[in-house]
User: Fold this.
Amino acid sequence: MRRLGFAVVIGLLCCGRSLFAADVTGHWRVVRQTDDGNSLETFLDLKQQGSKLIGILLAGWGDLQISDGRVDDNKISFTVDVASNWRYAGEIAGNEMHLTQYDPNAGAIPVSAVRMPLQAVAPARLPVPPLRAVLSNGLASTPPMGWNSWNFFHDKIDDSTVRQIADAMVTTGMRDAGYRYVNIDDTWEGSRNANGRIRPNKKFPDMKALADYVHAKGLKIGIYSSPGPKTCAGYEGSYGHEEQDAHTFAEWGIDFVKYDWCSAFRIYSDSEMRAVYQKMGDALRESGRPMVYSLCQYGKNDVWKWGKLVGGNLWRTTGDIEDNAHSMFSNAEAEVDLAPWAEPGHWNDPDMLEIGNGGMSADEYRTHMTFWSILAAPLIAGNDLRNMTPETRAILTNSEVIAINQDVLGRQGHRVQKHGNIEIWTRPLAGGAVALAIFNLGLTDTSVTVGWQDLGISNVRSVRDPWARHDLPAAMAEYSGTIKSHDAEFLRLETGR
Ligand code: GLA
Assistant:
C-alpha cells in the first residue's frame, strides 16, 4: 500500500496529466488483419521504465529489438529494428492497445494488441524422427531454373499475378531459355479446415486450377511452407501437418516445395534441423508426386553436409539476398568452400536472383548472372517478368551463359586466385571445357592479366566470350585487360586436341 501511495504521489507531482498513467510492462498478443482474410499474430514483451519503453517483438522469423519506445499517459510509440524500421504508435486502453504500424514498404497498417497473462508463442514440441537417409527423388539433375514471387512482390502476390507471370514466362522467351518453375512464395496460406487441411487464402481461390493453368503453359509450379507453426511472414506453417500438406500439395499438382525454417526456431534447436527437414523430405516422397525440395534455413548448421540426406535438391547457403552489389557478392562468396557439396540433383543455393529489380546497374546484374553460373546455382528469377527491360531480358536469357550454369557435369566452380578485389574462379565443364570468370569486387576499374597456364589449364583450342557470343583468337594464352568496378570477364575455354 505504501508503494502504491508513493506511485500516485509521484504521478501527481511529476506528470500532472493522469493519476493512473498506463504501465504496459508484460506480454501482449498483437494481431493484424490482412486483406487476404488472415489474422496474423506476433507477440510483444514490453518493459516500461517511467515513460521509457524497451522490449522485443517476437516475429515469425526472429526476436526483434524495440527502440525509441515511449509511453506518455495512454499514448505509446516504438520502433522495431528491422531493415526497413517499422514504427508503431497508438493508444492504450486498459488491457488493449490500438496501434498503427507504419511500414515504409507497406504504409500504415492498423493492429490491435491484447495483454496476455502468460506467453505462449509456440505450440508444444512434437518429436523428431530418428536420422536416416531419404532416397533421392531423381529431380534437378541440373540447377533448377524458374521464377519466385518473393523478391519483387513480397506479400502482393495473387492468383491473377501468377497467371500473368506464367504468360510472361512464355512470351518473353524465359521458358524457352530453360526457366520452368513458377514458384509462389510466402503469403498464399489461409487457415486449416476442421480436418486440418490447409486452404489457400482469398488471394488464391483455387490452387489446383492455378496449377493446371501453369502446367498448360508447359511450365511447373512451386509453393512455400515452413516446418514451424508460422511462416516468416506469420502465415500458417506445416508444423504437425507435414504429411497432410505434402499430400495436399501433390493433389494440387505442385512440382516444387520451398521449406523455410522461420518459426521452427522457437521449437527446435539448430542441431535438430536435419531431422525436421527429413520429416518433410519423407512426406514429399510418400506423397507419390515428384516435387523438387528446396531447403531454406539460411545455411545454418552446415546444411550442405546433410541437405542431400533429407531428400533436398537445393539448400540455401546464406541469409536473404538484397538488391545491391554488396549483398550479391557476399552471398556468392559464402560459397567459396562449398563446391565439393554440389552435384547433379543437389545444389548449393546462394538465393534467388535480383536481376531486373532496379537496385544494381546492368554491369552488376550481368556479374550476378555470371557468378550464379560459375557457382552452378539455381537460377530463380525474382523480378516482374511482365515489365522487363530488353536489357534485363537479355541478361536472364543469354543461352551461352545459361549453358554454363546448366552444364551436365554438374560441378560447382571454385575460387582459384584472389588478388585484393580481383577474384578468379573456374568451373570444369563437360567435355574438358572450363568456364573462367574474373570478378572485380572493388570500386575501382582494375587491369588484370591472367594466363591459362597459371591456372593449370592447358591445351586450350578455343576461347569464347559467352556474353558477347563471339570467339576470341584461339591462340590467345591469357586474358589481359581492364575490368570495371563490379564487372566480370567471363570466358569459356575448350580444351583438348
Ligand atoms: C525468408 C526467406 C525468403 C522468403 C521469406 C518469406 O526470409 O529466406 O526467401 O521466402 O522468408 O517470408
Summary: Residues 2-15 form the longest helix (14 residues).
